[in-house]
From TrEMBL:
This is Cytochrome P450. Pfam families: p450. Its cofactor is heme. Heme binds at C437. It is a peripheral membrane protein. GO terms for molecular function: heme binding; iron ion binding; oxidoreductase activity, acting on paired donors, with incorporation or reduction of molecular oxygen, reduced flavin or flavoprotein as one donor, and incorporation of one atom of oxygen; steroid hydroxylase activity. GO terms for cellular component: endoplasmic reticulum membrane. May be involved in the metabolism of insect hormones and in the breakdown of synthetic insecticides. Keywords: Endoplasmic reticulum, Heme, Iron, Membrane, Metal-binding, Microsome, Monooxygenase, Oxidoreductase, Transmembrane, Transmembrane helix. The keyword Transmembrane helix applies. The lineage of its organism: Eukaryota, Metazoa, Ecdysozoa, Arthropoda, Hexapoda.
Amino acid sequence: MILNALYVIFICLVTTLGTLFLIRSKDAPPGPYPWPIFGNLKLIRKLSQKFGGQHVAFMKLNQQYNSDVIKLWLGSSSVYVVGGFESIQKILRDDNYDARPWTEFVKVRNMGIKKGITMTDGPEWKAVRGWLVRSLRNLGFGREEMCNRISEELEILIDGLKRQGDKPVRIKSMIAPAVINGLWTLVTGKRIDDKRRLMHFLNIMERRAQAFDITGGILSVYPWLRHIAPKACGYEVLVTLNNELKAFLMESIEEHKKNYVKGSEKDLIDMFLTEMHLGDVFDAEFDDDQLLMILVDLFIAGSQTTTVTLDFLFLWMTVNQDAQAKLQDELDTVVGNRLPDLSDRPKLPFTEAVLTESQRLRLVTPIIGPRRSLKEASLNGYRIPKGATILMNTYSVHADSNIFEDPLSFRPERFIQNNVYTPSKKLILFGGGHRRCPGETVAKSEVFLLFAGIMKNFKLLPACDSDLLDINPQPGLTISPKPYEVLLVKR
């Protein structure tokens, strides 16, 4: 009797939930009807697996429903997915969408600390972000001091690559230390010279990037699973990674506190400690938690993204030998026998075009998000309720045949007119609005110097003559190339 009663209750619950899900107001965006309890989770996973990532799956759904705005259900939570250049720009330019959702997944990602510059919002976020931008500028962010640091890392990297001889290498594992040390020096004032310590840090960052997709994975859909199946839902591994990352960063923070001398600030941590001593100047909390989350945000955004962007670039060069030869001819003509410098950039239109085309096709973060609406609004005639979660799919712009001819092909020449590098105004590579990436300048500089420096010194070949490298990305919190090996031939 009890089992029968429970069964009837379950059927009634499923039916009721199903009815509620299927009720769609006239001003709601279109989208697939959700299953009770699970929503559209199964469909999204199926399409992501079929097309190679959520960014492509979302674009296909936008096309299917002939709408730049669609509504999806992840379990019992709704998400508004926005594609198309004009629609994305409406979100980026509107202060109403500057906020972030504070879901269970975001809480875990942020170690339960609502601080930092990536997953927070409000007056404190604005104050801390403003302080960070000013501090990075004072440290030479985007100027000669920073470029000298990157050039030093480049020289170390080239020496290491030359010692590889004729052995096939996974170039990503070689460039990652250079990228992380360039940022680490800016933040802490010195390199990570201990190889084991450096590899440990890189390993933590790599595992974090592959742990979840942009929607937060199963933990975001069913947050209660962390209590009954912490391992299966990914909660356990993320907490473990958080503890490892926190311990690693706090070690440097504590070392700085011991050696801190006011007026002798040499790096970002020193400058933050000065702010702590000043007190509540910017109406924000400048405490250990804030510093920790700023560092977490900087290294997640600055190291992993830059490394993977370079990994895609070297993959394209290996697959497209004609483009590689043309790029190297340009570097030889302009740069000569020295290493490239930022002053060379205006004279290297094809190199710039290669950088842009690679990111257009394989932007490491093709989905901008998540955002939260601060009040009820209208987008393309559809009602966006207060507190709604919004994701923006830049891939839908970069793969739009109405904007880019033959969009799925690697054609750097599309960005050159009359021998001048001319990027499209419809590229969205670093976000926009108040949340535009604050590290854009250093990311562009680091990618250019490391990429041009390696291409000036080496020819990249497939590890085997018959080896056809897979250019399709593997999904994760960011997309990345599938592991590949190349031969580096000294030029």
